[in-house]
Amino acid sequence: MTTACYPGSFDPVTNGHLDVVKRATRLFDEVVVAVLENPSKRPLFTVDERVEMLRRATAEFDGVKVGTFQGLVVDFCHQVGADVIVKGLRAVTDFDYEMQMAQMNKRMGIESAFLAAKPDYTYLSSSLMREVVALGGTIDGLVPDFVIERLKEKFAKP
Ligand code: ADP
Fold it and tell me: Is 23 in the pocket of ligand 1 (CB under 6 A)?
């Protein structure tokens, strides 16, 4: 039985993230999405909100769990019995950082596997989704519909 851990901020989840989760479920028996709990990063959504959106968005997928972590991803991997870290690569801009993390995590005993982002989603990031909605733009088809509603609620004027 192989378990993969897919770590990230997911603030909020995008269709690019969901594509990586879906494809990982075909490669591994179980995929544990690990939401980084890091208040110093000042996320837009609380960790509970991010977990809840991910659970809802992956409800129809087989073999997916959603958890939270603080500290080292490798410690979380040991806790949940994950053998490998899975990550999505969008462009060369992701590469340097991901390579460095993968080599350090390998040194600490956990392998990494990279999935090339789906071309339609290469330009997607949670921060871009937040920015576009905050400025009144549309992101239909780039995140689940309910996530658009949640983003609009966050940016609604009181
Ligand atoms: P971001 O805020 O940049 O979307 P996250 O920390 O939530 O980033 O992302 C977690 C992981 O998902 C990273 O490995 C990142 O490269 C990957 N990822 C993010 N967006 C996409 C996408 N559109 N397609 C494929 N992988 C992605």
Answer: no
Query: pLDDT value at position 93?
Result: 84
Structural domain of 64: 3-155
Q: State if residue 58 touches ligand 1 by the CB under 6 angstroms criterion.
A: no
Q: Mind telling me the catalytic residues?
A: 17, 41, 90, 126
Atom 6 in ligand 1: residue holding the nearest Cα: 8
Residue whose C-alpha is closest to residue 73's, from 110, 48, 45, 40: 110
Q: How many domains does the chain contain in total?
A: 1
Helix (H) or strand (E) holding 88: strand 84-89
Tell me the CA–centroid distance for residue 6 and ligand 1, in Å.
10
pLDDT for the residue numbered 102 = 98
CATH number of the domain enclosing 149: 3.40.50.620
Ligand 1 neighbourhood includes 126 CB (under 6 angstroms): yes
Euclidean distance between CA atoms 56 and 146, whole angstroms: 9
* pLDDT (tens digit per residue) in 98-146: 999 999 999 999 999 999 999 999 999 999 999 999 999 999 999 999 9
